[in-house]
Model the fold of this input.
Amino acid sequence: MKLFIKLAQLYLPDFYKRKIFKQLVYLTARAFQCAPPEIQGFSFPQSLRKYAEFTRNEAEKIIRENQNSLIVRETLFQEALKFGKSLRKKYFIKSQAEAFQFARILYKQIEIDFTVTSDHEIEISRCFFSQFYSNKVCELISGLDEGVLGGLSGGGVLKFRQKITDGAKYCQAIFQI
Done:
């Protein structure tokens, strides 16, 4: 695992980035119980934009139609938790530190930059999705982040304290073990 992290921090092949991204797209569509957006044949930046628009539109539809957003959020969490657990197993992630290093690499690919302190405080300085999401949409979709980090780390709960979509300069969260 440590060798993979060192290499991935330097360079992550496009085919690998696309493979993981495609898994994210499909698990999100399953959680929303709809077809995924078409990303085949598009550049990665175009695909990322399509995914952001897709998640925003589906979340807004749930909110607008007064469907139970808590159930959808929990489904997003559960799908992402399975995904995170599968990555943990596949890449032999053994520690919290390795989980956060791997998460930073993954999130960087979708244009989210964050740092983690020794106290498991997380600061997200840049989030591609914040330009697409309202606060309500972000709250619903953040179930994905909670699930991925929970799965990668082998357990734990991500709790946001502030978000860019609330007007803050950065997102701040704590990961409780």
